[in-house]
Amino acid sequence: MNTASNDAARLRAILDSAVSAIVTIDARGIVQGANPAVERMFGYTEEELIGRNVSMLMPEDLARAHDGFIARYLSTGDRRIIGIGREVTGQHKDGSSVPVHLSVGEFEDDGAHYFAGIMVDLRQQRLTERQLAREEALFQSIFDSVPDAFVVTDTDRNIQIANPAFVRIFGYDAQEIVGRSITMLFDDREEAVQHTSTALSLERQQQQLQAPIIASFRRRNGERFPGEAVWSEVRDGANVGVGYVALVRDVTRELKRETATRTAQRLEAIGQLTGGIAHDFNNLLTVIVGNLELLEPRISDGDQLDLLREVKEASEKGAQLTDHLLTFARRQRLESQKISLNGMVTAVADLLRRTIGANIVLDVIPATDLWMTRADPGLIETAIVNLVLNARDAMPVGGRIVVETRNAILDESGAELIPGLQVGQYVVLSVTDNGHGMPPEVAEHAFEPFFTTKGPGKGSGLGLASVYGFARQSGGQATLYSEVGKGTTIRIYLPRADADDGTHSAGRQEEVLPLGRGELVLAVEDDAKVRRLTIQRLSALGYEVEAVGDANAALGAIAGGLRPAVVFTDYMMPGGISGLELAQRLRAAHPEIAVLLTTGYAGGLIDAGDIDKLRIKVLMKPYRQAKLAQTVREAIDTNGRARAPMSGSES
Predict the structure, then answer these.
(1) Confidence of residue 409 (pLDDT cuts 50, 70, 90)
(2) Does residue 502 lie within any of the structural domains?
(3) 403 & 439 share domain
(4) Residue 414 sits in the same domain as residue 487
(5) Does 300 share its domain with 221?
(6) What is the pLDDT of residues 319-363, one digit of tens each?
(7) Does one domain contain both 314 and 375?
């Protein structure tokens, strides 16, 4: 084989093995040859192409202009394609477009011009570019819309880019922090170095995302906030670290919600314990006060009477103490009515201005168009007094107290920060002072009973506890916000009363009514001491008394023919039937029998609706003899008046 043949064979082998498509054409654009890559790229075999114009590999618009390009070059030497590589669009045999990079060269053979086109298939590259563009758009969308601060750093932890949420959370402009160390975002630089170094080294060792860390961060304006941060190293395709990403979430709201929930749960647990103790203590006080009152008429010695009266006064103070405890535990019976806080706040404030001292300014800011609410007026007044006096004590050298009312509409985000409140409309009573304030560890316990920061003998620690319990039992909530050196704000949220809610309280009068006229009273009390005392006290008031230990025994006695004028029953009793259930059964079977319910607390089971519906009276323990006389007489007379119209209609 001669040299020319060897060269031709070698050239053919090169063309056949080339990845790029190679086509040779003459000066008229007629295909003279094509390598196998052309078929892979365009779908035409070499036999299909030879002798035909190369424009068949082009879309129609390029095909029309192609021959003109060659003719112009040959006549003018104007190189628009020749020797210049560029990206063009070819056309596959099936009509689909084929993006290619085209380089055209020329050569002569026996004085004739020929051109060689070398084409690189760009379809995979275009597909990769589209995928990258989609991924970049997706990343940018996530980067821009994620609600947490998203920061990308280089390997030295210098910030390269930050998302819009970063600007909102930290307050820095996205450009002003480029090139600065990410440690600048921490409140404590040493903590920053420790967290970033530890988290990133662990992440690098374990090749997995580390658990979030909680750290204190600082905004541009100097404000500190708790944040939850996640760090991760960014690696390229060669598994070489090229930087880091950090995601920082402001958890201020979550921590406040968790703290509020824990506080509410703790207060609820304390309330359960406190309520039970107070109820048992009320039973003891009932025995003590009752026996003292029975004993008093039998003593004539003045010194002994003075001693007895001191014991009575101490017992009454004990009763006041249990009253506060029951209010905290939400087990005090409320005498609620529809009220407007504005008038009450103004009236109480006028009285308090005379007692809080000349160095204290007390301002009242009543809301216009304040909604009505439903609450116990006496406990509202007590709450205002407690809060104002507490505020005064927080300002020993003087200051300002502001009592304010307003309407509030809580949506889901607002209600979730105040455990125990539902979405809805509330009337808010707030008392604010500019006193010394409380640190968080003190404020956390402020509503607990017997917790006080005052010195010995200067406070019982029950003022705020009773305010909290009153608010919760009224269907609302009490909250406290305090900062050391700035002051304290306590807010009471009470549900808005319906406009057509016309029910009213039974009042608080305690006038002594006529005594018994020999009527029979069936006393139902499980505590033997209280039962014996009850028999003595009712007998002293002029009543005949039968006594049993539980509701089942009472129902059995009545079924056996006993017909008392009134059943005087404790609320909490063994045997599976409470005093309230006993009242319900008697109302259904024997409406002629009056019912008087006595209890140390009413709890959530006894409300004004049940009392009105069953036409029963409630006597709170411990009670004075005069109150017992009034309530028993009232229960008998009220039940008789209520039945008189029904008796007349039946005759």
Answers:
(1) confident
(2) no
(3) yes
(4) yes
(5) no
(6) 666 665 555 444 455 567 888 899 888 888 887 887 788 888 999
(7) no
DSSP letter string over 498-538? PTT----------PPPP---S-EEEEE-S-HHHHHHHHHHH
Element of type H or E holding 196: helix 189-206
- Is residue 108 within 8 A of residue 120, CB to CB? The reply is no
- Phi-psi region for residue 358, left (φ > 0), alpha (ψ -120 to 50) or beta? alpha
Rg of the chain taking only CA atoms, in angstroms: 45
Q: Shortest CA distance to 587 belongs to which of 566, 570, 571?
A: 566
| H-helix segments, 18-163 | 36-42, 46-49, 60-76, 123-145
Distance, in Å, from the CA atom of 500 to the CA atom of 129, rounded to the nearest integer, reads 69
As given in the structure block, the two tokens for residue 393 are 């004590």
Phi, psi (degrees; rounded to nearest 5) at 410: -95, 125
Tokens 């295909």 belong to 31
Q: What pLDDT, on a 0 to 100 scale, did the predictor assign at position 453?
A: 63
**Alpha-carbon distance 540 to 542, whole Å?**
6
Confirm whether 466 is domain-assigned.
yes
Pairing of strands 360-365, 487-495: unpaired
What CA–CA distance (Å, rounded) separates 119 from 344? 92
Does some domain include residue 506? Answer: no
Helices (H), 252-397: 252-295, 302-328, 341-352, 377-393
CATH of the domain at 36: 3.30.450.20
Contact present, 512 and 501 (Cβ < 8 Å): no
Compute the mean pLDDT over every residue in the chain, rounded to the nearest whole number.
79
Q: Dig out the tokens for 273 from the structure.
A: 């314990």
CA 636 to chain centre: 50
Q: What are the tokens at 582?
A: 């006993």
Contact of 61 with 35, CB cutoff 8 Å = no
Angstrom CA distances, 504 to 62, 335, 370, 469, stand at 93, 8, 19, 21
CB 479 within 8 A of CB 491: yes
Is residue 444 a part of any domain in this protein? yes
Burial of 329 (0-12, 13-18, 19+ CB in 10 A): buried
Angle, helices 341-352 vs 377-393, to 10°: value is 40
The verdict on 10 and 115 lying in the same domain is yes
Report the DSSP beta bridge partners of residue 523. Answer: 547, 568
d(CA 611, CA 602): 11
pTM of the model as a whole: 0.42
Structural domains in the chain (count)? 5
Helix (H) or strand (E) holding 472: helix 463-473
Q: Which residues span the domain enclosing 470?
A: 337-495
Residue 389 burial class via C-beta count within 10 angstroms: exposed 0-12, middle 13-18, buried 19 and up? middle
